Amino acid sequence: MATDVHVPTLGESITEGTLAEWLKKPGEAVKADEPIASLETDKVSVEVPSPVAGVLTEQLVEEGDTVAVGAAIARIDEGATGGAAPSAPAVAAAEATTNPAGAGENPAPKGDSTAPVAEDDQVTTLSPAVRRAVLEYHVDPTKIRGTGKDGRLTKDDVIAAAQAASSPAKAGAQEAQPSSQVSAAPPSAPAPSPSPGDRKEERVKMSRLRQTIAKRLKEAQNTAAMLTTFNDVDMTAVIEARSRYKDLFEKKHGIRLGFMGFFVKACALAARDVPSVNGSIEGDEIVYRDYFDVSIAVSAPKGLVVPVVRNAQAMSFAEIEKTIADYGKRAKEGTLGIEDMQGGTFTISNGGVFGSLLSTPIINPPQSAVLGMHRIEERPVVKDGQIVARPMMYLALSYDHRLVDGREAVTFLVRVKEAIEDPTRLLIDL
Predict the structure, then answer these.
(1) Where residue 318 sits, what CATH number does that domain have?
(2) Are 301 and 40 in contact (CB under 8 A)?
(3) Residue 200 falls within a domain, yes or no?
(4) Is 405 annotated in the active site?
(5) pTM of this prediction?
(6) Of 193, 175, 195, 171, whose CA–CA distance to 185 is shortest?
(7) Are 416 and 430 in contact, with CB atoms under 8 Å apart?
(8) Which of 75, 162, 368, 416 gets the highest tally of CB atoms within 10 A of its CB?
(9) In this predicted structure, what is the pLDDT of residue 61?
(10) DSSP letters spanning 89-136
């Protein structure tokens, strides 16, 4: 019995997504609740599970197509096993994708040999970016161990394998191995090495996530009266506290003590003195909050995401660090849910992990402020009349001047600076 696979509910106000990648191909056995495709929405990537166990017989849409919530994207032959042959149109479509010239000419290997089918499955379930990298570097994807989710290959895996095989001996061994990608092309297929004067361009369609990021950032610039104020902070006390207690902290809580916990606590403390920084404008009203839900900017493979640490004002350092570490792991795996990124009241972005010295972060609407952290570097400063070297960090607070006055923004940033330079304030609520 054929069962259609429908696009699941993607979250509040999200009515469609883009089919980013097929994880299963026609003729392949699937288990109930096993992901068969990956959808990309405006905020996150969502895997589409199979509602039943059986064999995927037909893909109704192609990668890159826009699909609405509830639309059918595939058909599953319920109860069939992996050895059962799929329908003829599905087989022809699958073969035309990988071998357009020879489709249907040699049907014998199609269902008898298990090993070749497994290798072909691995190749055809590669993402478009990985396929391009495989063809560009002329490597055999079946010989590469994937580091992505569920052991899938990433573009970095392909590049690393190509670099490892760059020596003449390794290159010869790599070419001697059978490869479905290389053997499909004639011996003369590899292009000659480009000359120094060659210029290339590559056009790649923007992902839905990147389009949404671009749209929201531009809307923030067009709507809010944004202004940025700066300060610098001496990180000596925090570095010393972290060095002194990091081993005990990790032993007791099972998580490393980072700098972000200090800044989240410092911002929560400062927001009590300057509530407008944690507020927002809704129509002709200002919304003030007695809770602090801080969005932490996290770098993910497909762009920047901002999961929310809720009720941060009431959390301990360990709870904050565990929550942030969990979000970071899930962001890399692509398993963050839409609910994880909704409802933040303030944002902290740490560009310092990438080496940024100074920046002017953009507000994440409808929030009214965002704090930018930057790299720590030793600089000469004057302490007690003496020029000394201190580990310093620049802080930048971008805020909506419609709601937050300059005095309030500077006061907030000074409160954060005072708490970081004297962490005892975090313990006694000063």
Answers:
(1) 3.30.559.10
(2) no
(3) no
(4) yes
(5) 0.59
(6) 175
(7) no
(8) 368
(9) 84
(10) HHHHHHHHHH-TTTTTT--GGGTS-HHHHHHHHHHHTS-HHHHHHHHH
Domain span including residue 231: 208-428
- Of 59-73, 185-199, 275-289, least confident by mean pLDDT is 185-199
Q: Is residue 59 located within the same domain as residue 134?
A: no
Rounded to 5°, the CA angle 266-271-277 comes to 125
Calpha distance 146→161 (Å, rounded): 10
Catalytic residue among 65, 156, 273, 401: 401
Which band of pLDDT confidence, cut at 50, 70 and 90, is reported for residue 224? confident
Mean pLDDT (whole number) for 84-111: 43
Query: What does the block give as tokens for 361?
Result: 């972060």
The reply to whether 271 and 408 lie within a common domain is yes
Cβ distance 309 to 291 under 8 Å? no
Q: Is 138 a catalytic residue?
A: no
Q: Do 295 and 380 share a domain, yes or no? A: yes
At 300-309, the pLDDT tens digits run 766 678 899 9
For residues 227 and 323, membership in a common domain is answered with yes
* Mean pLDDT estimate for the chain: 79
Name the residue with tokens 């990309």.
Answer: 40
The active-site residue out of 4, 156, 405, 422 is 405
pLDDT at res. 31: 85
Q: 352: helix, coil or strand? A: helix
Classify strands 294-296 and 346-350 as parallel, antiparallel or unpaired. Answer: parallel
